[in-house]
Amino acid sequence: MASGSSERALARAWDSDIAYSFRSSPLTMAAAAFTALYLLGAMLAPWIAPQDPFDLKQLDLLNAFLPPVWEVEGKAGFLLGADDQGRDVLSTILYGSRVSLLVGFASVVLAMLLGIGLGLISGYAGGAVDAFIMRVADVQLSFPAILIALLIDGVTRGLISAQRHEELAVFVLVISIGLSFWVQYARTVRGLVLVEKNKEYVLAARVIGLPPALIMLRHVLPNVLGPVLVIATINLGVAIITEATLSFLGVGVPSTQPSLGTLIRIGNDYLFSGEWWITIFPGAALALLVLAVNLLGDWLRDALNPKLH
Amino acid sequence: MIAFVLRRLLQAVAVMLVVSLISFALFNFVGDPINNMVGQETTLDERAELRRQLGLEDPIPLRFARFIGNALQGNLGVSYRMAEPVGRLILSRLPATLELSLAAAVFALLVGVPMGVYCGLYPRAPLARLFQAVSLVGVSLPTFLIGILLILIFAVHLNILPSFGRGEAVALGWWTTGLLTAAGLKALILPAITLGLFQMTLIMRLVRSEMLEVLRTDYIKFARARGLSNRAVHFSHALRNTLVPVITITGLQLGAIIAFAVITETVFQWPGMGLLFIQSVQFADVPVMASYLILIALLFVIINLVVDLLYYAVDPRLRLDRPGKAA
In the prediction, which pLDDT does B324 show? Predict the structure, then answer.
């Protein structure tokens, strides 16, 4: 029964309408291709990167500040130049993207799980529980997400010692970003649940005596996943930007495991001495990734919106 | 009316209480305040005496009440890092942040509204399409990257604008302003553009879609039928009706601008509250963090409250809806 309903949801998600709108938009296809390539590059970084930027044996300080290969002093093997420690910029971008994408995906999943859970409870239970959850959501929505992430990060930083924080930095980031984005999911899911819960299939499930938790997870949830997927795609771009911003501000991941934001912060110190490639290439990688993800999100939103067909 | 205002006020007070509770918890569970105050040679007895004198042995609700009382009087503790009263520290940084935020908001309005009007009037013109594309890219570029790009172009390559600090600031009483000197104004340009760019694209998109909508309405057709000039129709009929949502959004965004100033101030080393906050997060300087938290929360609560009350005053439909909803 469970697999049947989720298969149906999947079949609906891969409906031919969507496939058609994907085929007919070259921009979307380009964005998808870029995102796929980027993901592949990040995942395969240990095998395809020219250099392991964390292996001190492979680093040579003589290579420090090498410009990109097409400039006069460029050196083969350092396509995008080298940073202050002689690390190949392309390699640090590939490795840094792993951290950025990991934090981005993990925090979106956390926000999604939290938001879906609270939205289901809020919509299905109603009454005081609903009122409480939605008031909290209202209040949180009136503050910008990045500020909330910054505050959660600051509070945990105060609570645990600096050394522990270095080890836990990625978790702290995921939790701060995840906690700052759950509201959208909760509101959307709650609204959809309010519509769905009076439909006949839910009433039927109730009549045969299924417990509420089962009805919510197996019957209601698959029917509200479409919009959630759209929010998740759009949120992925925002989450990646938030992570990069926090790392750039120096309160994200430590420089021992740099993300794209950390790389940009490191490179920023050398902007004035003319070594622009250390900061501009990670910046361009970040901007292109977010742009591609945003384009995919826009497309998904339009494709799943029945009003536009 | 009174019930609505009271409920909103109650909600605002509740939010502030929760935020102060978090700040209070920060103060009390992060590190030992006594350790932060005394030297190593202080004996255990002296420490216990000090604890009693400072009221640290009192029950927690009493301490929380005292904390709120102190905060209300502007007594927010002493910064661990700078060894200065936090209240004075924040007050000295406040003018820089407010001037930057205001300049950013003015920039966003002055550039965003005309761009939006143009895109709404001529949606198919090449320039309008260019504006649209730029705004999409602007949304995808994180604030700090925009700042870095501007520094690279205008400070490093062209070398015409300063890239950090406030330039020359003049003291007017306790308020320091950079608006009165040429160096101060020049230093303001890049940070204000960086901070205002996102809001500018937001306003542009909003004005564009509102204009497109308004231009389709009957009263615009009627105004044209009366033979009014394009100029009169576009500006005194169409634009005027799009400005209400624009003003609301700008008001609401003012809080966001002040919050996002944290990023811009870090990029440009602008000596405002945001930079102070980031530095205190890095050093776990709890009193500064807690005070900034309370201050920003207060700011947002006030802005939201004012916007809600204004809505209520402006839009009569809300007044009819509310009692029905409450019942």
Answer: 41
| DSSP track, B180-212 | TSHHHHHHHHHHHHHHHHHHHHHHHHHHHHHHH
A chain contacts of residue B304, beta-carbon cutoff 8 Å: 142
Cβ B263–A245 below 8 Å, yes or no?
Answer: yes
SS3 B78: strand
Domains and CATH numbers, chain B: 2-72 (no CATH), 91-320 (1.10.3720.10)
Domain residue extents for chain A: 72-308
What is the spatial distance between Cα B270 and Cα A284, in angstroms, rounded to a whole number? 25
Question: How many Å lie between the alpha carbon of B190 and the closest alpha carbon of chain A?
Answer: 16
Residue B108: exposure state from Cβ atoms within 10 A (0-12, 13-18, ≥19): buried
**Closest residue of chain B to A243, computed from CA coordinates:** B142
Name the minimum distance, in Å, from the CA of B29 to any CA of chain A.
7
| Residues of chain B positioned with their CB less than 8 A from the CB of A294 | 136, 139-140
Partner residue opposite A245 with nearest CB, options B31, B144, B163 = B144
CB contact under 8 A, A264 and B145: yes
**B172 membership: H or E segment, kind and range:** strand B170-172
- This prediction's pTM: 0.80
ipTM, interface predicted TM-score of the complex: 0.77
A72-308 in CATH: which number? Answer: 1.10.3720.10
From the CB of residue B197, how many other CB atoms can be counted at a distance below 10 Å? 25
pLDDT, tens digit, for every residue of A59-102? 766 666 677 767 777 666 676 777 777 778 788 888 888 889 99
